[in-house]
Amino acid sequence: MGSPSAGVVLCFSHTMATLRPGGPKLVFLVGFMGAGKTSVARALGQKLGWSFEDLDDRIEAREGQPIHRIFETSGESGFRQAETAALRELLAETRPQPYVVALGGGAFAQAQNVDMIEQAAVPVIFLDGPPEELFQRCEAEQGKRPLQSDLDRFRDLYQQRRPAYLRAAHRVDTAGKDVDEVAMEVASCLGLL
Fold first, then answer.
1. Residues forming beta bridges with residue 28, ordered by sequence position
2. What is the pLDDT of residue 23?
3. Which residues of the chain have pLDDT under 50?
4. Of 28, 49, 88, 97, which sees the most CB atoms within 10 A?
């Protein structure tokens, strides 16, 4: 993410899930590749004293291989099946303390996953940003993401998935912001500050 930008917190609320009395026990961060879901979820967990999990880590542990290998051996459809199974498992767990989970870029674009999350009434935050900036963030990382290609295809996939992301309860713009700033905005959106 870029350097901190001055200004007010811009949290765009939608109506998918409402927070339960006493605050949420589980929160999902969704968004496209490069949006900072994992980094922000980790920072948010640290700030709030919550546990943190990346759904991709759970998938790798369940499948016994890294994400890129799952794509190579089982294709995207095989990966999506593993992703849905891991999400179902996560939603069925009860934990003594609240936690924040980063979902992979395509998880919230799958109707069955959205249905499970809506039925569980888990608050969802969409981390958004301009596709060009998201692409640059991905390019700066070590290793390539299975569905990352050239900028034009990246933009197309972003545009395809964005309507699904907009079903989230809140949207936080990450453009030009650092991880801690975005984490604070997410906490503010959830009424946790």
1. 101, 124
2. 64
3. 2-9, 14-21
4. 28
Right CATH for 11-189 from 3.40.50.300, 3.40.1280.10, 2.60.260.20, 3.30.930.10? 3.40.50.300
- 8 A C-beta contact, residue 88 and residue 117: no
pLDDT, tens digit (0-9, with 9 covering 90-100), for 14-34: 433 333 345 678 999 999 999
Contact (Cβ atoms closer than 8 angstroms) between residue 35 and residue 145: no
